Amino acid sequence: MNSIKEATNNTTDYGWESTVGPHSCNYLIPKIIEVLKKLKVKRVVDIGSGNGSLCGALKKEGYDVVGIEYDANGYKISSKAYPDIHFYNLGVEANASIVLESEDKFDAVISTEVIEHLYSPHLLPIFSKSILKTNGLLIISTPYHGYLKNLALSLLDYWDFHHSPLWHGGHIKFWSKKTLAKLFFENGFELIQFYGVGRLPFLWKSMVVVAKKR
Q1: What is the pLDDT of residue 94?
Q2: Rounded Cα–Cα distance for residues 21 and 28 (Å)
Q3: What's the angle, vertex CA 184, arms to CA 10 and CA 62, rounded to 5?
Q4: Cα–Cα distance, 63 to 110 (Å, whole number)
Q5: What's the pLDDT score for residue 9?
Q6: Quick one: pLDDT at residue 10?
Q7: Cα–Cα distance measured from residue 129 to residue 134, given in angstroms and rounded to the nearest whole number
Q8: What's the rounded Cα separation, in Å, for the pair 136 and 91?
Q9: What confidence score (pLDDT) does residue 4 get?
Q10: I need a labelling partner for 143 at 20 to 30 A (CA). Which of 2, 39, 169, 210 fits?
Q11: 49 secondary structure, DSSP code
């Protein structure tokens, strides 16, 4: 009888090796900063802070910023690269009170290109709600999916690349504005703003959505 080696179904290593930010930083960071300035936000936390690229950029802009990263290597890299920023090695399944033991509540939670990786995406708004002030903001980015982009992917026969099943720890949820709004509403938030970023309108690479705590 063949023995089967049991393997974990949880991804704990997302491949962080350096302080170089992913290519998505080029179009996401300017939009995130623009949104924060427009909303007059001062104190923010980045959930899924990776190697700290976004936190570093926000700190440089004068924001009071904290990072939360599940990947142990990403946490180590960011903590070393940005010693003046407080990082936590946690996932959204953790008890948010761990953060509040040493932090005041935040004006905004930011989470860029994270929610598409989560088996239980509702945990992100639940965790966020616990650490936000009254009327606090949840700002999320995720790859954009809309009719025209989906049609283009089909016509170009690009789905195997776009939805690659071979990427360990890759995208497992594919969101639209409608499904994100439903996720927010069911977990105590109301979607208030939507932006497309990267590439041409309606073929955007990602969307940035802003929701307010109810």
Answers
A1: 95
A2: 11
A3: 85
A4: 12
A5: 53
A6: 63
A7: 9
A8: 20
A9: 40
A10: 39
A11: -
